[in-house]
Design a protein that fits this description.
single chain; mainly alpha; rod-shaped
């Protein structure tokens, strides 16, 4: 009777051990699947980050280019303004000379 009780307990322990082994296998498979999904998502995020960095660099280059164009436009406008000022000064001098001659 005692041997039979021990055999029943042993069978029960073996069944529980098999159940736990199956749970462990299932958990391992689930972990492997999650690891694969995480690795795939990490790859996607790396690609997105690379695209964002590329877009940021493109935006920076466009900004620098536009800034250079604005500086060139401003320099041209300053040059035109200085030219107009010199022309106005020259005309004022000419008018002054003509007025001086007219008084004589």
């Amino acid at each position: 009777a005692e041997v039979e009780a021990l055999n029943l307990e042993l069978e029960d322990l073996e069944l529980r051990l098999e159940g736990q082994a199956e749970e462990l296998r299932s958990a391992g498979e689930a972990l492997a699947a999650q690891t694969r999904r995480a690795a795939a998502r990490e790859g996607e995020l790396r690609d997105e980050l690379a695209l964002l960095r590329q877009a940021k660099e493109t935006d920076r280059q466009n900004f620098v280019r536009a800034l250079g164009e604005k500086d060139a436009e401003a320099a041209a406008a300053r040059g035109e303004a200085l030219g107009a000022r010199a022309e106005a000064d020259s005309l004022a001098a000419t008018v002054g000379e003509l007025q001086a001659r007219a008084r004589q």
